[in-house]
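Dear colleague,

Thank you for sharing your sequence with our group. We've completed the structure prediction you requested, and as agreed, I am returning the results in plain text so they can be pasted directly into your records. Please verify that the sequence below matches your submission; if there's any discrepancy, let me know and we will rerun it promptly.
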Amino acid sequence: MPILVIGIDIISEETKRFAVVSWFNGRLIKNGEFTFYRLVRFIRAKQPDIVATDNIYELGEYLRKFIRALPQGTKIVQVTGRPGEQKSLWSLAKEHGIKVVDKFNPYEEAKVCALLAVKGIGHEVLAFEDEVVIKVSRGRSQGKGGWSQDRYRRRVHNLIQNKVREIEETLKRANIPFDLEIKEKDQGLERGEFRVYASREELAGLIKPMKGGDIEVRIRPVEKKTFEFVPLKSESAIRERKSIIVGLDPGITVGIAALDLDGEVLTSYSERNMAVSDIVRFISEIGHPIIIATDVNPAPGLVEKISRSFKAMLFVPRESLKVEEKNELLRNLGISVEDDHQRDALAAAYKAYLRLKPKLDHIEAKLKELGITKKGEEIKALVIQGYNLGEAILKVKEREKPREEVKHVEEKEVYVDLTPYMEKIKELETTVELLERENQELRAMIEKQREIIESLENRIATYDEKIREKILRSKEFEIKEKRIIHLEKELREAKAIIEKLSSDLVLAKRMHLLELRGSAVPIKVIENLTWKELEELERSTGIKKDDVLYVINPAGAGKSLAEHLVEKRIKALISAKTLPNLVYEVLKENRIPILYENEIEVKRVDDFAIVDRKELEKAIEDKIKVWEKEKKEREIQEFLRLVEEYRIERIKELKKKSEEGH
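Please find the predicted structure tokens below.
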């Protein structure tokens, strides 16, 4: 498939102007001189596979902004190698047979960068972690408050909640790990923030950014604190460094082990709190991993991340290795380790090697048969990466061809048929200028339309405000009408209370008048005959000798309370209900009359009551007479009982004497 590679070099440091040369399908095109922002627009329009430069740090303060602006899928490559291991651009050009005309020409440098990247020379700059932050929030301002704005806000919060659920379900279906933080409001969500543990390439096509509507979805990859440099092609890494199989045991203490393709142990190491960058650096110093292995299934996220960083194959056992199996693997290796983390890492690496050993032995036998043993390790690594044996051997043989032949082929491929296209390039440049002018005109039209839209939005806002005022007025009328109905109800209740109080007042006046005349006796009212209410009555008005008490409910009274009333020497007790037997007997025994409502008429207003004096005196007198009569009857009955008992005893004695005389 044809690829597009753009090579760039700095022309001017002060205003940041760049020389740009692109390579497409075997042909070089000099694109011209670009400012920084025009270069960004050009790259975003062309969406190249690679942007190549000899030193990314020449971008200076624009570096991070430039990397953020790159289209998804576009790699930025430093062709001279990782920092600290860089080679001269011109020595790389000579090494790979690239003809250089003028070393001081920025376009020549941009051309060499593009051609080196095409050959797979250089290191890809990794600026982002395999983590992405997705924020779902409100898309536009609510404006001023009000009834309609509250309804709109609740609607937006419901939309945000639905979008968060949709993204959550999408990530779960794709088996992509994530964390979710939400802020709830109005029975919905004010915002939601996902931290997704995957690269932005893995999310491509799953979740799309949104802006301009009621809600907004922003997708932002998490930037690394420091850049990582990874070989552009794993094949070049295989040639430069030893191919290894790495076992990794992540955790607070990280275990790392490495084997070569012959199954020999190269290292076994463990360290606490090891950062990802430290793990990558440690492995890189040993060699180039073509397989990253783990001892558990499923593979931990960190192991997958390291595997992607090196573009290595990931080995996961069918089921997690048991401790006995790990110990057996280490016994077969004849190796002792310092801790369990080293053991787990080494067991994972050796398990991966054993899985590949039949294939590696087959390759070894074929190479001996063909008489190719010098480049055996390189061929094995390419086969493990997916090439068949024939393709791997051809690739290695192509690299061993004489430099002159390679140079001749490359020059032929690079510079063939360039002249006929110069006129086409000029024609395209003219077209680009026309399109830029047309773009400016369209931008002006868009700005004018934006002003019209803004004017219409202001008119709509004014209309909304009028509608809102009308609605508020109608709501005010409704509230006032409800208030009137409520006040009328309160007025009726107040009139009823006043009428009752008036009648009570008239009755109270009459009672007071009767009391003054001496024809009525005031009595003290007790709702419940309990100690608590009795004490309250004594504190408020007191209970004196010859007072008459009126009890509404005597059910809670007992003997001690009745004895207390006897001590107070009250004149009488009137009860609305039957007194308890104990209370009745104590009062009766002490000759305190007990009257019921059917025996005397009581006139009452709240806590005040009176009875007619003559009626009270007569009722008391009648009650005393009844009790005296009852007492006399009891005494007669007692006397008759004693006489009868004496008679019976006397008869018994006479019978006994008569029997003794015989």
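Summary note from our side: Residues 234-239, 402-418 have pLDDT under 50 and may be disordered.

Kind regards,
the structure core
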